[in-house]
Amino acid sequence: MSLHIFVWFSTNLQLLDAPLIKPVYVALLLCVPTTMAAYFGTKFGYAAFEAAWSIRFFGFAVSYFVFPVLTWWILGESMFTTKTILCILLSFLILAIQIYM
Questions:
Q1: Does the structure show a pLDDT above 90 at 6?
Q2: I want to staple 27 with a disulfide (CB 3.0 to 4.6 A). Which of 3, 10, 18, 34 is the partner?
């Protein structure tokens, strides 16, 4: 989950109207922790699932829990649209398939 939080801030912080924050510096600061989170997430995910596709689907599903919440909380965009709610429900389904099948 930390990977997706790092990615959100390194890519979406530039959308804020905050003159004291330099988004490019935040992106540079987060590039190494983001890469390391992706590296170890893949390593441990492959050890647990034994399939690269499972890691991909699991990561996608987790990202759909992080992105709507941070986008709503920080940017003020509603996550309560029909499309977003359906995508979040599908993410739960993807996680359940990857964990229990």
A1: yes
A2: 10
* Among 95, 31, 34, 35, residue whose Cα is nearest residue 60: 95
Pairwise pLDDT comparison (43 vs 80), residue with the higher score = 43
In total, the chain counts a number of residues equal to 101
Mean pLDDT computed over 57-64: 87
DSSP string covering 80-92: -SHHHHHHHHHHH
Q: Indicate the average pLDDT of the chain.
A: 90
